Amino acid sequence: MFKKYLLTFLVSMVPLIELRGSVPIGLSNLFGEPIPVLPLYIICIIGNMLPVPFIFFFARKVLEWGADKKIIGKFFTFCLEKGEKGGKKLQEKAGKGLYVALFLFVGIPLPGTGAWTGTLAASFLDMDFKKSVIAIMAGVILAGIIMGLASAGVFGAIGAILA
User: Fold this and answer.
1) Would you tell me the crossing angle of helices 18-27 and 2-11 to the nearest 10 degrees?
2) Taking the domains of the chain in order of start, what are their residue ranges?
3) DSSP letter assigned to residue 58
4) Which of 103, 121, 137, 101 is nearest to 12 (CA)?
5) What is the band of 54 on the pLDDT scale with cuts at 50, 70, 90?
6) pTM of whole model > 0.85?
């Protein structure tokens, strides 16, 4: 059982997969018995949030450092430009509701959204670290709830009832 706990913890730390992949794994019969819901969410949220401070404080610096390097420069420059452009666009649309927008961006489990991307955007926008972490954590919790309901088949049942 420890292996499954460790697997869900590690999967929740992987960029793009994050909690969206670890919750279904934890709730499934894959790799052993399903993990009880409360411990599963605690493990997944901790795993998903663990990289956030490192991303916030160091990812932008690493990208800026690598932007002028021969082999990785083009990719790092692309990432910097994309992040700055996306951040400015989000800031223009969200206005004063920037932290709510960050919460929703992280919380709605779509490809390319999540704690990693949201934290990188917050870093590019020079948002307040503490407020950003709160918005990102709330988003991670929302994404976990949505993925748990989806894994349990709740959305399919609602669709069948309404159809």
Assistant:
1) 160
2) 2-49+149-162, 52-142
3) I
4) 137
5) very high
6) no
Contacts of 87 (CB under 8 A, 6+ apart): 121, 124, 125
List the Cα angle 12/18/24 in 5-degree steps.
75
With CA atoms as reference, report the closest residue to 94 among 63, 64, 135, 53.
135
Interval 99-121 mean pLDDT: 88
Structure tokens at 67: 């932007």
Contact of 31 with 4, CB cutoff 8 Å: yes
Structure tokens at 127: 């948002």
What is the spatial distance between Cα 12 and Cα 14, in angstroms, rounded to a whole number?
6
Evaluate the CA torsion angle 117, 122, 126, 131 in order and state its sign: negative
